[in-house]
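To illustrate the input format used throughout this study, we show a single complete record. The first block contains the structure-token representation of the backbone; no residue identities are included at this stage. The design step must infer an amino acid for every position from geometry alone.
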């Protein structure tokens, strides 16, 4: 299946698609940003924070010179298991940069959690077992614990991934937190910590 990337101007994204509602319907509140938060990122960082959207999928990602962070990836229920997700990852892998993403740990409350992990493992993503990532949601105040997964075309260390995650947290998740939510953001060190000695990735 061919995935075609549709580049959009920020104003087109805001006015002509329902990508936000689609994400909101699928992702739990503790993982969602407010619409104003999305708007700020898309308006202030249009070359870095982008949306790739089609009838059956939505991908929101943050791109830097040496890595891509997938903030959200959603494949519609009726097309899951048909290769769409793999094609989306292939499109991003072809950029030749490391890809970092957050995955909810296996949970009895979410039967899809184990399937998501197996999906990323099939596509050569590795779990960064030594990185602890926990942050409090700006609205619900829920503690959100996530695992970090990474795919990289060249050898990297978990220390390298950790430093990129700190940048992601500051520049994406905590972006304009006080202005948008009226709360002071957690520090990088409060959110991201090492469990033990780090290993190499790939």
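Output of the design step:
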């Amino acid at each position: 299946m061919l995935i075609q990337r549709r580049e959009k101007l920020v104003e087109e994204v805001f006015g002509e698609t329902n990508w936000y509602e689609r994400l909101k319907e699928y992702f739990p509140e503790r993982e969602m940003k407010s619409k104003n938060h999305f708007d700020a990122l898309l308006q202030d960082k249009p070359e870095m924070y982008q949306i790739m959207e089609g009838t059956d999928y939505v991908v929101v990602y943050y791109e830097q010179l040496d890595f891509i962070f997938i903030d959200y990836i959603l494949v519609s229920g009726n097309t899951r298991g048909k290769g769409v997700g793999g094609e989306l990852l292939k499109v991003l892998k072809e950029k030749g940069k490391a890809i970092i993403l957050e995955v909810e740990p296996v949970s009895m409350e979410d039967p899809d959690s184990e399937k998501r992990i197996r999906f990323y493992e099939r596509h050569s993503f590795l779990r960064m077992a030594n990185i602890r990532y926990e942050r409090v949601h700006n609205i619900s105040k829920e503690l959100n614990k996530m695992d970090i997964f990474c795919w990289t075309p060249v050898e990297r260390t978990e220390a390298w991934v950790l430093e990129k995650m700190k940048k992601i947290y500051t520049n994406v998740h905590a972006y304009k937190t006080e202005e948008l939510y009226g709360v002071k953001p957690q520090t990088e060190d409060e959110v991201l910590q090492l469990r033990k000695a780090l290993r190499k990735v790939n």
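Structural context for interpreting the output: The CA atoms of residues 135 and 191 lie 5 Å apart. Residues 158-173 form the longest helix (16 residues).
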